[in-house]
Amino acid sequence: MYSKVSLIALAVVVPATASPIVGELGTRISFQKRNALSNSDGMFDHAKAIQQVVRDHNKHRANLRNLEQNAGRDAFNEGAEVRPLMAYPAHALERRQSEALTDEAHDEYWAGNITVGTSAQNFFVDFDTGSSDLWFPSINCTQSACANKHKYNARVSSTSKHTNSNFTLHYGDGSAVSGPVWTDTVNIAGLSVHDQAFSAVTNLSDSFGPQANDGILGLAYQSLSDIRMPPFVNTAKAQGAIKQAEFGFKIAQSGSELYIGGTDASQYSGDIEYHNVVGSTGYWQIGSGKLTIGSTTISSDIKTIIDSGTTIVYGPPDMVAKLYQNIPGAAVYDENSGFYSFPCNNVPSNIAFSWGGKQWTISPQNFNRGRVDKQHCIGAIAAQNLGLGNNVWLVGDSFMKNVYSAFSFEKNAVGFATLK
Ligand SMILES: *[C@@H]1O[C@H](CO)[C@@H](O)[C@H](O)[C@H]1NC(C)=O
Ligand SMILES: *[C@@H]1O[C@H](CO)[C@@H](O)[C@H](O)[C@H]1NC(C)=O
Ligand SMILES: *[C@@H]1O[C@H](CO)[C@@H](O)[C@H](O)[C@H]1NC(C)=O
Ligand SMILES: *[C@@H]1O[C@H](CO)[C@@H](O)[C@H](O)[C@H]1NC(C)=O
């Protein structure tokens, strides 16, 4: 698992977890599994799930604020609004903090390694298609949440440059992730770019403390960026480090990878079914979507934002209610966080998204988020108004695990293919 490297070791560690694949367009980065909402004993972790709902809510609130700043409200989806900051229920936060020490053993990560600076400093980051900034802790972060993280030290990097700007992300536990913006060389599995902007954060929200990842690498469009500088893939394209500003995700129990500079044909069969990005929201948002259960249509002409940084799927509350009405024995489990339960002995295997082409089904294994008692399990689709707009669904890993997904700035499109 994740090991803590001392600062002295950091300065002399030679990175190279992987090297570019000669003769291919792109670069493979392997992932570790990310946190499931259930414990290793298959129980639904309610406190962790609430924490994730709050984080997801506030992350997208921050995205909308950045979009408003960068592109104006005209870029919003119809019905979109910056919702109030969501706060953690006090009981949920207390329980999470007391669990901090044992937490990592149960966590699963989809994060991977990058190096920053000259000489290289290692960071373990979550690759997030639902945001557009790169950040990780600074050597100057003295908060307890930073204690077990890798920290960026500008002084030992000959290529670091300070900028005058600052970065801030608000989370609902009363604190923020914030710090100054730097530029430096960033290397992902041998793919190297210079003068990449990122924040070395000096403040880190408590909720990040127990997580194994040091920070986040955003893969959405620059208009969602608080730093207001090109994200990594765009920098790589601009500098000619990759020919195509494209990347592909395989998120699975094993062999997960991010492929930058194209898609990894060894991971999927058949063609990729591409759909144009709609609107100028800065998200990987595709339109004309449909959610079905068996032959019943739950919602059509929906917009879907494909977000690798979200564990589950969130939909408009009335539509999510309609979905669970079509699952025998389903009931509201927690109205605030939007979770529903259903009988564990009958996990739906016919829930699918489609965008005018194939039906892409969520497997029962990916739909079931764990048990709450002997008979009842929690579904991976939750009701939540995140302010993203009318008929907009936020589609995370519970869906992405079922497909190979491709993200192309060149085509301005998101595509799906069948995993090999
Ligand atoms: C990331 O690097 C750490 C060492 O710093 C290593 O233990 C871990 O296996 C690496 N993870 C991946 C997914 O490459
Ligand atoms: C941390 O603080 C020191 C001393 O003020 C400063 O030199 C350095 O640039 C700061 N930031 C980082 C990321 O090292
Ligand atoms: C960034 O934050 C630092 C430290 O709080 C502050 O001195 C500086 O003025 C800020 N820069 C801008 C552009 O707000
Ligand atoms: C950063 O943390 C310090 C104390 O640790 C706090 O006083 C300050 O308000 C925080 N800044 C932000 C932007 O949250």
TrEMBL record:
Keywords per UniProt: Aspartyl protease, Hydrolase, Protease
Family listed: Belongs to the peptidase A1 family.
GO biological process, alphabetically ordered: proteolysis
One Pfam short name: Asp
Family matches, as SUPFAM superfamilies: Acid proteases
Protein name listed in UniProt: Protease
GO molecular function: aspartic-type endopeptidase activity
InterPro entries, sorted: Aspartic_peptidase_A1, Aspartic_peptidase_AS, Pepsin-like_dom, PEPTIDASE_A1, Peptidase_aspartic_dom_sf
PROSITE patterns linked to this entry: ASP_PROTEASE, PEPTIDASE_A1
Organism expressing this protein natively: Dichomitus squalens
